[in-house]
Amino acid sequence: MREAHCHIGLLGESLGLADLDGCASLLACLDRVRQASAETSVGAWLRLKGARPASWPEGRWPTIQELDRAAPPRPCVIMSFDHHMAAANSAALRGAGLRAGERVLPKGHVDQDAHGQPTGLLHEHAAYRCWEAAPPPDPSTRRQSVAAACGLLADLGFTEAHDLHTPEWLIDDLIALERAGELALERVDVYPNVAKLEEVCRKHEGLASGGASGERKRVRLAGGKLFADGTLNARTALTLHPYREPMPGSPMGVAMASPEECERAVRTCEELGLHLAVHAIGDGAVRMVLDAIEAASGRRPGPRGNRHRIEHCELIDQRDVGRFAELGVVCSVQPCHLLADIEVLRDQLGSRLDRVLPLREIIDSGCVPGELLWFGSDAPVVRANPEDSVLAATLRRREDMAEDLAIGWEQRISEEECWRAFGRGC
C-alpha cells in the first residue's frame, strides 16, 4: 500500500513534540503551553505542533503577550497544523532574529499591530525560519526519529511512501537506514525542492536509475517539489474567486510561484528524466499548474507509473477536472484534510463547496484510482492513518456530523475506490 504524500523528517520530529491537536479552544491551547513549559528545561526552545485556531470558539491565535506569560522565559513557537503559520513569543522572535513587519523571502512576513509592534503571528517563510531557529537534534537522534517515522508508516500497512519537499539530510539518513537494514519501508520516493534537484542528482548519482550496477534501490529520487500557493486555513491558497474574509491585499490568496516558474520547473524535471510534484490547493493554483504542464509537455501523457503530479487539489474548477486525464497528470489528494477543514471551508467558500475535492468527477473523467488518482495523508499535518481519508471520501464529513452537513455529498466515492487510490490491489 502506498502513502503518496508525507513528510518523514517532520513526522519523526513530531513524535517528540507537544501536540495541540486535541485542544478545543484558545484557553486549552495556552494551558497546554504552560504544561509543556513546566516540563521543559529553562532556556530550551519550546515547540508545539498542530494548532487549529479556525476551529476554536475564540477564532484567533494567542497573542505574543499571552505566549510570553504562558512560557517564560524560554523561546516558544506554536506551529499551525498545516505548517503555513505560526505564533511565537518575544524570546522566540529574538532567537530567530525576526522583527515586526519584516519580509522573509520569498513569501513570508512577520505580522505587526497598528503601533508597529509584533503580534507574534508569522506567515509562511517567517514561520519556517522561527521554527528552524531551535537547535537541531544531534545526527544520531535525528536518524532514530526517521527510523521511527518509517516504522509508524509500516505499522499502518504502508510498504511505499513518497516524501515531498525532502531535505538533503533526510535523503542521507534514509540511505543510511537502507544500508544498515533498518529501513522499515520497502520503497521511499523522495522529492527535494526543484531548485536543488540538479545538485541532488549530482550528489546521489544513480539514485533515480537504481545505480550503475542495476541494483534496485529502495530509496529513489523520483522528482522535484514546487509550491504554487499556500493553504485554505491561512487564506493563502490561490483561488479563482475571492475569499469571504480574505487576507488584506490578497482577496484570492497568494501565488507562491509564477506561471513561468511552474513551466520552467516542469522542463527542469523532464530534462533530468524526473517528475514534478506541485503543491496546489486552490483552484487558481491547480489551473496554473495544469497550464504549465500543458505548455511545457504538450498533450502527451507520461509513462505509466510515476508522472507529473499536483498535490492536494482541494479545490478544482469544473473546467479543469478532465485535464488531469487528458494530460496524464496524477491528482494526488489527501481527503483526510476535509475532516479538519470543514469549518474554514464553510466560512470562506460559501456557495463553492461543490468544488471541494470533486473525487467522483475526477474518477469519472478518466483518473483511475491508483493510476492517476493517488491518496496520501500529508502526515504529520494530519495523522497518517488511511482510514481517515476513507471516511472523508465516502462520508464527506466527520463521523459524528449529520449527513446534511457533508461537504460535496455528490462527490463521494466508494470504499473500494479509496483503497485502490492508496495502491491496494493495483
- Indicate the structural class: alpha/beta
Shape: globular
Binned, the helix content reads 25-40%
Strand numbers in spatial order across the main sheet:
2-3-4-5-8-7-6
Give the radius of gyration: 21 Å
Number of helices: 15
Mean pLDDT: 92
The protein's oligomeric status is single chain
Verbal overview:
By secondary structure, this protein is of the alpha/beta class. The protein has 15 helices and 16 strands. Strands 2-3-4-5-8-7-6 form a 7-stranded mixed sheet, with helices on both faces. The protein has a 5-stranded parallel sheet with strand order 12-13-14-15-16. The protein has a 4-stranded parallel sheet with strand order 1-9-10-11, covered by helices on one side. Helix 10 links the parallel strand 13 and strand 14. Helix 4 crosses helix 5. The longest helix has 17 residues. About 2% of the residues have low confidence.
Short summary of the structure?
By secondary structure, the chain is α/β, with parallel strands linked by helices. It is built from 15 helices and 16 strands.
Q: What is the strand and helix layout of this fold?
A:
Blueprint: E1 2-6, H1 8-14, E2 18-19, H2 26-38, E3 46-51, H3 64-70, E4 76-80, E5 85-88, H4 90-96, E6 103-104, E7 108-112, E8 118-123, H5 125-132, H6 139-155, E9 160-164, H7 168-179, E10 187-191, H8 197-203, E11 219-221, E12 223-227, H9 259-271, E13 275-280, H10 283-297, E14 309-312, H11 323-327, E15 330-333, H12 337-349, H13 359-364, E16 373-375, H14 386-395, H15 415-421
Parallel strand pairs: 1-9, 2-3, 3-4, 9-10, 10-11, 12-13, 13-14, 14-15, 15-16
Antiparallel strand pairs: 4-5, 5-8, 6-7, 7-8
Helix pairs in contact: 1-6, 4-5, 6-7, 9-10
